[in-house]
Amino acid sequence: MRRVSIFGATGSIGQNTIDLIARAPQDYDVVALSGSGNIAQLAKDARRLKADVAVTADETRLEDLRAALAGSGVEATAGQVALDEAASRPADWVMSAIVGSAGLRPGLRALEQGAVLALANKESLVCAGELILRTARENNTRLLPVDSEHSAVFQGLVGEDMSAVERIIITASGGAFRDWPLEALKHATLAEASSHPNWDMGQRITIDSASMFNKALELIETKEYFGVRANQIETIVHPESLIHAIVGFVDGALMAHVGPPDMRHAIGYALHYPERRDLPVARLNLAQIAQLTFVEPDLRRYPALRLARNVMERGGLSGAVFNAAKERALDAFIAGRIGFLDMAEVVEEVLTRFEADPGRIDAAMTLDNVMQTDHLARERADQVMEERAG
Ligand code: NAD
Ligand code: MG
Question: Which among 151, 285, 291, 350 is placed 20 to 30 Å from 331, CA to CA?
Answer without folding.
Answer: 151
